[in-house]
């Protein structure tokens, strides 16, 4: 579990003398960590300890640049806020074992994916994978019951995936939908970007596509009220100018009149209850599932969820619990959860401003739990002359558990609060 890595790093950060006191740390390497960011932090800690330099978050941050690794300062702050332990004897071994379990799980999953691939795989390749997996099982120190549990889990996930192939839900409602595997019940999709890129606009574009396909969904606005989200959705869905709606410049006739009459009967439910944790989200979405038969839920945005919900856990671990909780809700209720998420500030300071998976704020568990991670990049946001910026943006599919990744050009239409497909012709 990544939580073990968090506790170990937090303990070393608060008490660097543990490097000298605990001999089992000598057997631990950065490659033994599941979370790449934590591996980089441990790598820098090892170097500092070998050089006799006192380990602090400030020195880790500055030294990481010399070593060519990128460490999010917010992660270091969250680790510093965590409560460490004085006895870390069992942690290095637990981290190594968890990594072995992860590797075994990946090998088994890879073999199953090859067996179910659309393109025929040579028999020798399949046998090679199976042989490799069997050798690892035989030589691994992982207890037999753990190996069996891992194998059962992977097989169940693959069966669930196969069942879901013919039970796909609507996608983004953009031109590239036909080029990618659509969402399925039980999946967690993350829509992420820096502020001002259009996360909520894409959320409403997805919501409108679900309504067009008569697929019930819930839109949970943690940042805006139901009234504000309803106005944005009406602009998006009925192709009415958002500015005209909020300034009451539309006559109560024609298309706007139809929208006002039609809107209450649409298969979309709006919620704006703030400050909720995973338990409250589950309870409300369970009611929505029972009452309205929802097939999806959009949560805007994840940074406003009460991740700790009264617990004493650090922010990183609490966000990981939220991520796991939302994935479990999706599987339990048989819906797709779209979680809107804000990327960290490092994106804006980087040349090109292109977002990557490492920019997900808070926890590597988000990337781990998500079935799809979609990121938005609008270069115009960074232009000084906002009166003449281009409305072209890019959608990056950075992770897709059941499909391919890619980059797609779209039109960011603020006037109608929506994204539209970009045609080259």
Number of strands: 9
Helix coverage percent of residues? 40-55%
What best-fitting shape do the alpha-carbon axes yield? Answer: globular
Strand content: 5-15%
What is the helix tally? 16
Sequence of secondary-structure elements = HHHHHHHHEHEHHHEHEHEHHEEEE
Strand order of the largest sheet: 3-2-4-5-1-6-7-8-9
Largest sheet: 9 strands, mixed
Mean pLDDT: 82
Mind telling me the C-alpha Rg?
24 Å
Structural class: alpha/beta
Low-confidence stretches: 116-123, 161-165
Please give the alpha-carbon distance between the first and last residues: 50 Å
List keywords for this structure.
single chain, 425 residues, alpha/beta, nine-stranded mixed sheet, 9 strands, globular
């Amino acid at each position: 579990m990544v939580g073990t890595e968090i506790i170990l790093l937090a303990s070393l950060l608060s008490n660097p003398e543990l490097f000298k006191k605990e001999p089992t740390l000598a057997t631990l390497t950065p490659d033994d960590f599941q979370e790449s960011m934590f591996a980089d932090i441990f790598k820098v800690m090892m170097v500092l300890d070998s050089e006799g330099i006192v380990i602090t978050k400030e020195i880790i941050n500055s030294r990481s640049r010399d070593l060519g690794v990128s460490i999010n300062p917010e992660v270091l702050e969250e680790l510093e806020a965590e409560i460490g332990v004085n006895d870390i004897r069992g942690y290095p071994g637990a981290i190594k074992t968890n990594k072995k379990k992860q590797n075994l799980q990946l090998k088994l999953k890879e073999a199953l994916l090859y067996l179910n691939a659309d393109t025929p795989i040579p028999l020798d390749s399949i046998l090679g994978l199976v042989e490799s997996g069997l050798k690892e099982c035989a030589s691994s120190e992982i207890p037999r019951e753990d190996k069996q549990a891992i194998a059962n889990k992977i097989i169940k996930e693959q069966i669930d995936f196969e069942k879901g192939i013919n039970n796909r839900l609507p996608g983004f409602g953009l031109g590239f939908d036909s080029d990618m595997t659509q969402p399925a019940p039980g999946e967690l999709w993350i829509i992420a970007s820096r502020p001002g890129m259009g996360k909520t606009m894409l959320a409403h574009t997805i919501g409108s596509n679900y309504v067009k396909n008569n697929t019930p969904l819930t839109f949970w606005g943690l940042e805006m009220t139901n009234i504000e989200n309803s106005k944005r959705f009406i602009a998006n869905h009925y192709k009415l100018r958002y500015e005209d709606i909020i300034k009451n410049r539309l006559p109560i006739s024609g298309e706007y009149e139809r929208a006002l009459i039609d809107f209450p009967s649409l298969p979309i439910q709006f919620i704006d209850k703030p400050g909720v944790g995973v338990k409250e989200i589950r309870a409300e979405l369970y009611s929505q599932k029972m009452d309205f038969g929802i097939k999806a839920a959009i949560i805007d945005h994840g940074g406003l969820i009460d991740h700790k919900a009264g617990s004493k856990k650090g922010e990183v671990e609490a966000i990981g619990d939220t991520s796991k909780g939302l994935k479990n809700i999706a599987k339990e209720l048989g819906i797709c959860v779209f979680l809107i998420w804000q990327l960290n500030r490092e994106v804006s300071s980087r040349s090109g401003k292109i977002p990557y998976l490492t920019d997900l704020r808070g926890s590597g568990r988000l990337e781990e739990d998500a079935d799809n991670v979609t990121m938005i990049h609008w270069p115009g946001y960074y232009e000084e002359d906002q009166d003449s910026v281009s409305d072209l943006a890019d959608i990056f599919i950075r992770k897709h558990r059941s499909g391919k990744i890619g980059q797609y050009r779209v039109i960011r239409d603020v006037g109608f609060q929506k994204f539209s497909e970009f045609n080259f012709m």
